[in-house]
Write a structure and sequence with these properties.
Helix content: 55-70%
Strand order of the largest sheet: 1-2-3-4
Number of helices: 9
Number of strands: 4
Order of helices and strands: HHHEEHHHEEHHH
Strand content: 5-15%
CATH class: Mainly Alpha
CATH superfamily: Outer membrane efflux proteins (OEP)
Radius of gyration: 38 Å
Length: 482
């Protein structure tokens, strides 16, 4: 019995050596040129800020999701830096890239060999009683993928990883733009609160002046009623402005994953504007838009999918070898087997045709992506020019005249030359125009952010973005924290 086991062991070792040679042949058949890499590179816009990067390893699932909720005043730079590190959606995209990396690793692995042990002709009757007449076969088989399937599968998975990196870059610019737009919204809302407070303060002062005129018999008591209605209306406008500010603050804080805003003021000055550049000078920069640039990787992925589906028409071979022990004759023999599917009905016709249709579809989608980006850029620049023209007109002509008109009517009212309703009309006109300027400034800076998202870089060399400033009414700070 001992000699029998030694003999089986020697035979099995020989079979393993033979099969190992077969594995080497399988690897040689499966190997091909590595996939060209078309992974995303960061666009210039916001590239100076650190971003969340998922880490690999066994402890990846234990990554902390604790977030920072700042309580200090914030600049635009502070908000962008915080969001790019803490935004939960961007972090999820970073992990998706890691998932694709792991799948690319898995796609390049060889199929595992299979060990089969069979026993025959035992526990029967007559000469097959017990195990003395049995046959024992130990068989080691290996699937050999033909047509370069493994390398082509790995190429498809690698390109899917590259597409995930493009998706991450798209989301990074989305977050950058969302934060810039939300920051402008908060800054505009703070200034609107300050403007509403100023209107209320002036309305309160007007009551005293009107009351004095009523007591002197210079005007009707109806004028005092109008003044009080004006104060009540100003209070309503102030409450609405504060509510809008709180909404804008919550929208900004959500960019770094917080559902409530605890920061103080956002610090900036909306007044800086520049004339937008002509579209012909920046149209070629659309190639930097990741929504457009990613299609190079997408088309390479579709080409690789076609190659993989074509390889699926070539049947794989399963080869194996082993030893068989014949107990009755005390003999040992080698066995060898090859399994080859016959591609009579299924030659992967549908998969190959679908892959080619997918490539044709992708080419149209690439064109559509460029057209969408080009149209959006042209519209953004038109809107930007409109906002700029409106701001310039208000500043150079309309607002100075409205200020002169209001001051003239106010002084004339004090001398009894005008009625209070005329003072209210001049005041309302002035503050409506100031509100219109503030709205145009907000639209301008939001449109700048959207245009920069489309070209993937700053629109101006000296960026027309809200800059750090202390020009905001400090009274807004107390209200913004409530």
């Amino acid at each position: 019995m001992i000699r029998r086991h030694e003999h089986l062991s020697a035979c099995f070792t020989h079979v393993l050596s033979t099969l190992l040679l077969g594995l080497v042949v399988a690897v040689a058949l499966a190997c091909a040129a590595p996939a060209p890499q078309v992974a995303a590179t960061p666009r210039p816009l916001g590239s100076e800020y650190p971003v969340y990067a998922a880490t690999g390893g066994r402890d990846a699932a234990r990554t902390s999701t604790t977030r920072t909720n700042p309580t200090r005043d914030l600049t635009l730079r502070d908000s962008l830096a915080l969001a790019l590190l803490e935004n939960p959606t961007l972090a999820a995209y970073s992990w998706e890239t890691r998932v694709r990396e792991a799948e690319a690793l898995q796609a390049g692995l060889l199929p595992n060999p299979e060990l089969t042990v069979e026993g025959e002709d035992f526990a029967g009757t007559g000469s097959f009683t017990g195990y003395d007449g049995a046959q024992t076969t130990i068989f080691l088989g290996q699937l050999i993928e033909l047509g370069g399937k493994r390398s082509k599968r790995r190429r498809v998975a690698t390109l899917e990883r590259d597409l995930a990196s493009w998706d991450y870059e798209v989301k990074r610019l989305d977050v950058f733009t969302e934060v810039a737009v939300a920051f402008v919204g908060v800054l505009q809302a703070q200034n609107e609160v300050a403007l509403a407070e100023e209107v209320l303060a002036i309305a309160g002062e007007s009551i005293q002046a009107v009351s004095k005129q009523v007591r002197a018999g210079a005007t009707s008591s109806v004028e005092e009623t109008r003044a009080r209605v004006n104060v009540a209306s100003a209070r309503v406008e102030l409450r609405a402005a504060r509510a809008a500010l709180q909404t804008a603050r919550t929208r900004l804080s959500s960019a770094w994953g917080d559902d409530s805003a605890r920061f103080g003021l956002v610090l900036g000055d909306l007044r800086g504007v520049e004339a937008p550049p002509p579209i012909d000078s920046i149209r070629d920069k659309l190639e930097q838009n990741p929504d457009v640039a990613r299609w190079v990787a997408e088309l390479a992925h579709r080409d690789a999918a076609i190659a993989l589906q074509d390889a699926g028409a070539i049947p794989d071979v399963t080869a194996g070898a082993g030893v068989r022990r014949l107990e009755q004759d005390n003999d040992t023999a080698f066995v060898f087997g090859v399994t080859v599917p016959l591609p009579v009905f299924d030659r992967n016709q549908g998969g190959r045709q679908a892959a080619r249709h997918g490539l044709a579809k992708a080419r149209y989608e690439q064109r559509a992506a460029f057209v969408r980006a080009a149209s959006a850029l042209e519209i953004a620049l038109e809107n930007l020019q409109s906002s700029f023209d409106q701001i310039e007109a208000l500043r150079s002509d309309v607002l100075p005249q409205a200020v002169l008109a209001y001051e003239g009517v106010r002084r004339g009212y004090q001398r009894g030359l005008f009625r209070y309703i005329e003072v209210l009309d001049a005041q309302r006109t002035l503050f409506e125009l100031r509100g219109r300027e503030l709205s145009a400034l907000g639209d301008y800076h939001r449109t700048v952010a959207e245009a920069e998202r489309l070209i993937g870089e700053p629109l101006f060399e000296t960026r027309a973005r809200p800059t750090a400033s202390t020009s905001i009414n400090p009274r807004t700070n107390e209200e913004s924290k409530r």
